[in-house]
Design a protein that fits this description.
Layout (H helix, E strand, L loop, with lengths): L2 H28 L2 H7 L9 E3 L8 E5 L1 H13 L3 E5 L2 E5 L2 E2 L4 E5 L3 E5 L10 E5 L2 E5 L4 E2 L7 E4 L2 E3 L7 H27 L4 H21 L6 H32 L5 H15 L3
Parallel strand pairs: 1-3, 2-4, 3-6, 4-7, 5-10, 6-11, 7-12
Antiparallel strand pairs: 8-9
């Protein structure tokens, strides 16, 4: 088999593996849809209500109700399950950990407002981050190795994330415009022959330092020496690598030295051996 035939065979294999085979498997999966749907059963809960206000929750949107949610869920769980009722009002809380046979019910007009304090989602729990299993901050509502759980009602789950105004959106786009322009200039400059890839990377590093100047303005004076020391080592290594790479490129261009240094060294060793009659 020629090299060209091998190349065609590899391309065909990759195409089959990445596109055709998964597509066939996906089509076969749809045949199992009815079986999967038939396995799904609506959860059924005991006809018992546990109001979070009876366990210390305050509906002012400021008082931490994390322990009140925890106590209510534990009481419902110990009684065999039921509805944990969130009445009308706004309740501030950290992570809510559900247990088996618990129906977290949000009454109409109720709001569960989750805290923006990261410490409210500790200790770490077993979860997934971008498909990877790990120990991480707890999700807003979490359950592990539990069953027969539901979240019902017409209330609101407020993640309390930052709201972006039109002004903030424009500011974010303008901040991103600089790096994007630099990328276009670097790629265009390389294609047009204005500078080498090594020189383009050097410009990118210098530009990143310019962007970092406003950040240093917010640093307190006593923190500055430590930050400079931490970043100085990395910066020196980066500049050393870039400088060495640029110097090598320029020397090779001026002196017409071999591009492959290993070949040059081996050549010198062989020549030296021949001169010595070895």
């Amino acid at each position: 088999m020629t090299a060209k035939s091998k190349c065609h065979a590899i391309v065909l294999f990759v195409t089959l593996f990445c596109f055709i085979i998964p597509d066939c498997l996906a089509n076969d999966g749809w045949k199992q849809m009815e079986k999967i749907l038939n396995r799904i059963k609506h959860p059924v809960f005991p006809d018992k209500d546990f109001n979070i206000t009876n366990y210390g929750a305050v509906s002012n949107g400021k008082t931490d109700c994390t322990q009140a949610f925890k106590k209510t869920i534990e009481a419902a769980s110990n009684a065999g399950g039921g509805r944990v009722v969130v009445p009308t009002g706004e309740f501030l809380t950290g992570a809510i950990h559900l247990k088996s046979n618990i129906n977290l019910h949000l009454s109409e007009g109720s709001v569960i407002k989750f805290s923006d304090d990261p410490n409210m989602y500790l200790p770490a729990v077993f979860t997934r981050w971008e498909g990877l299993e790990c120990m991480n901050y707890s999700p807003l509502i979490y359950a592990y190795k539990q069953k027969n759980i539901a979240i019902t009602g017409k209330g609101t789950l407020d993640g309390n994330g930052e709201t972006f105004t039109f002004k903030q959106t424009v500011k974010m786009l303008l901040e991103a415009a600089g790096p994007m322009l630099l990328i276009f200039i670097a790629i265009g400059g390389i294609l047009l022959g204005w500078f080498t890839p090594t020189e383009a990377s050097a410009v990118a590093v210098l530009y990143s330092f310019i962007l970092a100047v406003p950040i240093y303005r917010e640093v307190k004076l006593k923190e500055l020496p430590q930050m400079l020391l931490q970043t100085g080592v990395t910066t020196s290594v980066v500049f050393l690598l870039i400088g060495t790479s640029m110097a090598m490129s320029w020397i090779m261009a001026l002196e017409n030295l071999p591009q492959n240094i290993s070949e040059a060294l081996i050549g010198k060793i062989v020549k030296s051996c021949k001169n010595q009659g070895l």
